Amino acid sequence: MNWLTNYIRPKIRALVSSSRPETPDNLWTKCGNCEAMLFHRDLEANLYVCQHCGHHMRLAPAKRLAMLFDDGKYETIELPKPVVDPLRFRDTKRYTDRLKDFQAKTGRHDALVVAHGKMGGRDTVVAVFDFDFLAGTMGTAVGEGLVAAAKLAVMQHAPLVVVPASGGARMQEGILSLMQMPRSVIAVEQVKDAGLPYIVVLTDPTTGGVTASFAMLGDVHIAERGAQIGFAGARVIEETIRETLPEGFQRAEYLLDHGMVDVVVVRKELRETLIRTLGHLAGGTQTPADDIVVDPADIAAAAVIEGEPAYRA
Fold first, then answer.
1. HSE toward the beta carbon, residue 152, CA cutoff 13 A
2. How far is it, in rounded angstroms, from Cα 301 to Cα 310?
């Protein structure tokens, strides 16, 4: 037995390691565009936009909602829970197991968060997608959530703002996922029939069935700088038409030049742009419309806040 090697050296290592302060492993983030290393406090203060190249990183729903609502105050609603895995789908693993994994990872039931609060002093309903939950894909739960958001907007006589970040329809739910496209369109029409503004904030990425439905039906389309917006992927399009696509194809600035987007903003200007746009569209003071008939039972079933009915008759 070597006394120095087996006894003294471990004691010295334990003493040094115990006295050394632990360094968090999330202090720095690499920009996905320019690969610059960004200090986490600077990145958070800049709303997760790279200070070097202006690349807009994906934003978690909670941070997005806190950024948009007055003083960061809002209330979320509990969304309806449809039947899980109606097709009993399985690829490399069961769909139910995949859902449980993402529910544990994100802490939410599915890929949509619906909240309401004041934006510029005006009651506003906001539906935000979480790309971290199965790439923000739209299944029956998301469809139910969009319907609930529309009902809540009509009930409150408030504008509806939707912030998609999605890979499109959810393949694990097959035709049931595709059925959420017309359902979301009908929900949007209910908001518009009530004479309420409907605004879409296009973030990176907005693709597939989401783009082909409610995401392109806004009264105004606002896009974050550099966001990818389209239906099929650029590589699929190039292989289909056998042509090279123009530079910047499917990016927000390209779509602005070609009339599919109304305005492109940097993230720090998004809230003020939304408030100003809502002011132009809604105008005047916010008063309930006499001709809007809402069944409170429908809202109570579709929107529950913190375990209690959101609205009572």
1. 32
2. 9
Tally the domains of the chain: 2
Is the domain of 100 the same as that of 199?
yes
Residue 88, domain extent = 59-285+294-307
Q: In angstroms, what CA-CA distances link 133 with 75, 130, 142? A: 21, 6, 11
What Cα–Cα distance (Å) separates residue 9 from each residue in 1, 3, 5, 21? 13, 9, 5, 20
Q: Mark whether 242 and 143 lie in a shared domain.
A: yes
Per residue in 283-312, pLDDT (tens digit) is: 754 544 444 444 444 544 444 433 333 333
- Mapped onto helix, strand or coil, the DSSP state of residue 162 is strand
117 and 230 inside one domain: yes
Show the tokens assigned to 8: 């003294």
What pTM was estimated for this model as a whole? 0.83
Residue 167 inside a domain? The answer is yes
Q: Is residue 63 part of a domain?
A: yes
* Integer Cα distance of 212 and 182 in angstroms: 10
Give residue 9's identity as a one-letter amino acid code: R
CA dihedral 104, 105, 108, 109 (to 10 degrees): -60
Taking only the tens place, the pLDDT of each residue in 231-286 is 998 999 999 999 999 999 999 999 999 999 999 999 999 999 999 999 999 875 45
Q: Are residues 36 and 175 in the same domain?
A: no
> Are 85 and 166 within one domain?
yes
